[in-house]
Amino acid sequence: MRSVVLIDEIDKAPRDLPNDVLNEIEDMSFTVKEIVADNKPGLTITADSKYRPIIIITSNSERDLPDAFLRRCVFHFIEFPEKDLMARIVRVHHPDLDQKLLDQALRAFYALREVDGLRKRPSTSELIDWIAVLRRAGIASVELEAGMPFLGALLKREQDLLAFAEAATRGRRPRA
User: Fold this and answer.
1) Cβ distance 164 to 173 under 8 Å?
2) Tens digit of pLDDT for each residue in 131-169?
3) 8-state DSSP, 115
4) Phi/psi at 69 (nearest 5 deg)?
5) Taking a C-beta distance cutoff of 8 angstroms, is the pair 104, 140 a contact?
6) What is this structure's pTM?
7) Residue 115 phi/psi, 5° resolution?
8) Which range among 68-72, 74-78, 169-173 shows the weakest confidence by mean pLDDT?
């Protein structure tokens, strides 16, 4: 039987990990040090040579990966979700969300992602968290022009908060 191995966000791992992963893939064997087997720390798992596993590795491109590693990968870029897909994603997490608040939150979120100078644009998880905060606070309406409540749920870096504030004062902030 074929297995699937997921290595998520490899770009956030220690710098040597991609090269170490290459060695493990070549050997088709790896040791999980945290698992105790036969009263010894570390369980070694070896793939069946007849059914090599499918290995899926994700990266957010936060840093460059080594060329030797990239040469052995098939790259597939996943576009950021458009508003209609994002609305469906949000509905999974907030099924009873008022449609008006969803529409306003999506307009504000996508407009915020367009602000010049952001180092890290807010992601899907930040949108979902932001909506949860809005709901817990009893906020039923969100408009960029009126100010962004709980902006820190969307922007996590001081540089991005400053970029947003600067864009707002220059009137360059996109309208929701």
Assistant:
1) yes
2) 999 999 999 888 756 678 999 999 999 999 999 988 888
3) -
4) -70, -50
5) no
6) 0.70
7) -65, 130
8) 169-173
